[in-house]
Predict the structure.
Amino acid sequence: MKYAICYDGPGRLRLRLGQHAFSEEEGWGIASLLRQKIGVERVRTCAQNGSILIYYGAEIAKENLLELVGKLRRADIPKVEPTGEEDVQAIDLRFQEKICSMVLRRVAEKLLLPVPLQICKTCLRAVPFLWHGLRSLLHGRMNVNVLDAAAIGASMLKRSFSSASSIMFLLSFSDILEDYTRKRTETALSASLAIQIDKVWLVTPEGDVQIPLSDVKAGDWLRIRTGTMIPIDGKVREGEAMVNEATMTGEPLAMRKAEGAMVYAGTLVEEGSVAVEVMAVNAQTRIQRIMDLIAASEELKASVQGKAERLADRIVPYHLLTAAAVFLLTRNTTKTMAILTVDYSCAIKLATPIAVISAMREAANHRMMVKGGRHLEAFGAADTIIFDKTGTLTEACPQVSQVIAFGDYERDEVLRTAACLEEHFPHSVARAIVRQAAEEGLFHEERHAEVKYVVAHG
């Protein structure tokens, strides 16, 4: 791939490959490939302008990253699912595109489209609104759809097609905001439960081999060790372990899993090492089915948002009665139209989700993820907050400060051997030892027999 360097700063590199150099799905694959390299902390891609933004640490040289991108071919890009951050980024981008498209299209129509064609387009756009209002009346419901239809219909009867068009534009804008809010909250929820594992250890006759999770299929055996989240549903075939199933059952105490027991994706091996035969992976896992169920049924709107929508429906009859009273008293259609078009209920429905979105975005800017308006409200009423320490109040990133060798052992040999053993365990202390060896250039081959872990004895 050919690229140009747009920004080159400490720990941050932005490359531009050109518009449409890769698709959105290929961008996810490129990001996944780069994240697998030691030292790459974060990658963001944008298919619209073909840019790749890379955040990296001291463990990898900038030249190595450039060489990797330069040698990348389209056939090398894996097909992967987007991460939670990439999902949110895609939703935000589509929302911005829809809003910009709506505004530009409206301005272009006003400036370029002849008036007769504008009237025809307004009449066609009004049909769905009028139908929804009529259907609500036929079902005995006096809701916002009726008020919308009344305002649009009255504007058109008065031949004020510009007013009717403006009302429909604002209503469409409100629908886009509501859809954006719903998708964003569902994505945040899914990301909080998602399995954030890229690679796993496959059990083979020649020994354990590390492979991408995307390559795992039913019937494979995976080695799951202490501190590792189980990424699949399966049955234990070898070993024993204490597994924390709090994500599935809410039970905080770990359960012993021996040969023949079932284990599920999203649970955590606290102690031990097991070989698990894969029964279900990705969309077929139980945790994924739970996520789908929550996404389909859970209403994450703030209660104030629900109250606003109910209030909007309740004031519709009073709104229509006010308009009728004004007409009876004044016989002035212009004043009556003013009552109908000043749609307070629409403003109530529109303002509330905007406030919730703004608050969630503000929280995200301070590195806090809010899963929905309901939780935002609960946070406002809280007087006590309980934190999970690791990764919340701490970085979960210890550093090796000193290596002490005893007897006839050399310091480098001790660190190399320790890293060789610890590379199989994703505990934060294990990662610190492996990282220190890599920083000092103490690269190692597999120099040991199979690593065995005894529950409660290490």
The two ends are 47 Å apart (CA to CA). The chain has a mean pLDDT of 80.
